[in-house]
Design brief:
The complex is a heterodimer of chains A (about 140) and B (about 130). Chain A is mostly helical. Chain A has one domain. Chain A is about 80% helix and about 0% strand. In chain A, helix 3 runs antiparallel to helix 4 and helix 4 packs antiparallel against helix 5. The longest helix of chain A has 28 residues. With about 130 residues, chain B is mainly alpha-helical. Chain B is globular and about 50 Å long. Classes of the chains: A mainly alpha (about 140), B mainly alpha (about 130). At the A-B interface, helix 3 and helix 4 of A face helix 3 and helix 4 of B.
């Protein structure tokens, strides 16, 4: 396989993935009150105790590291490895969130914003996958 | 052998990664009460179902990642997976030791620590061997 450098838009998708996951990971690790009041507020159950949030936070941060490492390698083989994790996770999260939305007591407003972001993100993953695959053979 | 292809030991580490994450992902995602009664027991607080679903979806996605790395058969791809898996296991170990010192851990959690202590050197070994080959 040819090893072309990544397309600029692929880099944007990877960069966005890294930043978003860093924000979520840092919030989960640094402030459980911020996490439970802003990122995952009522009517969702509280994310506690702190240990649970720490595992959750590190999961996000190490995924952020994966995205950053793929970006640093700057080739499609590495990037698609990361996107093979991120794509199914984001698509699955949308399904789970929609299921939660139709199940009482429903979901908070911010989760609708996550859904909107995920619905913007997932087609970008599909688009860069197709473009890079066509380019790299 | 192509310098980018995976060595048998690297493939084994990826298979173990995928299987372990699939087990945790499936049980945590679809059988949360079983997870809370067997995989994550007192003195740890149980995972709320809705939070568990998001967290363990990530385990399922990373299991797909490990399988995809295996399918690609390329070290350039696999090391992205290992960069995630290695750092997550190291952080998991640190958090577990801090919790053990403060709250205590259930016996099964010590088994996870043992597995992580086997897994981390295996990843480092695979990484070093593959890098020498490139």
């Amino acid at each position: 396989m040819n090893q072309h450098p990544l397309l600029p838009w692929t880099k944007v998708v990877l960069g966005t993935s890294a930043v978003v996951q860093f924000v979520f990971g840092a919030a989960a690790l640094l402030s459980s009150s911020l996490w439970n009041s802003v990122f995952m507020p009522a009517p969702l159950a509280l994310s506690q105790p702190v240990l649970l949030l720490q595992f959750f936070g590190w999961l996000f941060l190490t995924n952020c590291l994966g995205a950053a490492y793929a970006l640093r390698q700057n080739n499609w083989i590495a990037a698609r490895m990361y996107l093979a994790i991120a794509g199914p996770f984001v698509a699955g999260s949308v399904i789970l969130t929609l299921l939660a939305a139709v199940t009482p007591p429903g979901i908070p407003l911010i989760l609708w914003i996550y859904i909107l972001l995920a619905l913007l993100y997932t087609p970008q993953v599909v688009w860069v996958w197709r473009k890079e695959s066509a380019r790299n053979g | 052998m192509n310098s980018d292809s995976l060595m048998p030991f690297t493939k084994l580490v990826l298979v173990v990664s995928a299987v372990v994450q699939l087990i945790f992902g499936i049980v945590g995602e679809f059988f949360t009460s079983l997870f809370n009664s067997f995989f994550w027991t007192a003195p740890l607080t149980a995972w709320p179902v809705d939070i568990a679903q998001f967290a363990f979806l990530n385990y399922l996605a990373t299991a797909i990642g490990a399988l995809y790395a295996l399918y690609q058969g390329s070290w350039h791809g696999a090391r992205v997976y290992f960069a995630f898996a290695l750092s997550y296991n190291i952080m998991g170990l640190i958090v577990s030791f801090i919790t053990a010192a403060n709250l205590g851990l259930p016996p099964i959690h010590w088994a996870y620590i043992l597995l992580a202590l086997i897994y981390i050197p295996a990843v480092v070994y695979a990484w070093r061997r593959q890098e020498r080959q490139v």
